[in-house]
Write a structure and sequence with these properties.
With about 240 residues, the chain is of the alpha+beta class. Helices cover about 15% and strands about 35% of the residues. The chain contains 4 helices and 12 strands. The chain starts with a helix and ends with a helix.
Length: about 240
């Protein structure tokens, strides 16, 4: 190894000191990986096309979490939504969860989370809002176990197993008691009410707890007949007050 390092130094390959040569060699190895990897993908971010590999995350057979390996110059913030091609070439939404801290590596290794739902709702100002999200129910503890395994002292997110949850990019328009509906198919719609959220555990990521409720009746209120007063229509016009 000493002979090889001296040889590279004389050739001035990857720098004049050991650290820069090791860094340069790892970056070169990653470039070779991009050329031959079966997990190679290309995606657009901020108007630029980036090469990467989308690989299996530890023992996650469901492909809910994946590793996204990129060049060092590709910097992605937590909560960023990327549309990555699947094996059929169709773009699917993934959220950048966090960047694993790998000192002196030749690439960035991001953990990305597959989005499952596109949620829309009306905020308190009456404006239409929307977000991509990963929704999971009471029996799905995979993400809870993953968060716990990271053993971070600053993680304040905790789950009540009697509730449903979704994970989404940080959205300032999500508030407690917000109502939204999830359309699973033409004949099946679920309604939820937001009961709480956490925006501190992971920068750019929001954990939201929701409670299943009955669907709201969106039938418009009947017009008030002439001669009737607001007292006659109290529960239709002022009941929410």
């Amino acid at each position: 190894m000493k002979y090889w390092d001296t040889y590279l130094k004389r050739l001035n390959r990857f720098g004049l000191d050991y650290q820069s040569r090791m860094q340069g060699r790892r970056e070169a190895e990653f470039e070779r990986l991009l050329l031959k990897s079966v997990y190679r993908i290309d995606f657009f971010y901020d108007g630029t096309l980036y090469p990467a590999t989308l690989e299996k995350y530890k023992q996650d057979e469901t492909q809910t979490l994946q590793y996204l390996l990129t060049r060092l110059d590709c910097e992605l913030a937590g909560g960023t939504i990327l549309f990555l091609p699947d094996k059929n070439g169709e773009n699917q939404p993934w959220m950048v969860y966090w960047l694993e801290n790998m000192v002196a590596s030749g690439y960035n290794r991001y953990v990305v989370l597959r989005m499952t739902h596109f949620i829309t709702w009306v905020d308190r100002e009456g404006n239409q809002q929307s977000t991509w999200a990963y929704m999971y129910g009471q029996e799905d503890n995979m993400l809870k176990d993953e968060i716990r395994s990271r053993s971070r002292m600053d993680t304040v997110y905790s789950e009540n197993l009697k509730l449903n949850f979704f994970i989404a990019p940080f959205n300032k328009h999500i508030r407690r008691d917000d109502y939204f509906e999830v359309v699973l198919d033409e004949d099946f719609i679920e309604a939820y009410r937001v009961t709480g959220y956490d925006v501190q555990s992971d920068p750019g990521v929001e954990y939201v707890s929701v409670d299943p409720i009955y669907l709201y009746d969106h039938t418009p209120a009947p017009e008030r007949p002439e001669g009737d007063t607001s007292e006659d229509y109290y529960w239709l016009e002022r009941g929410e007050e």
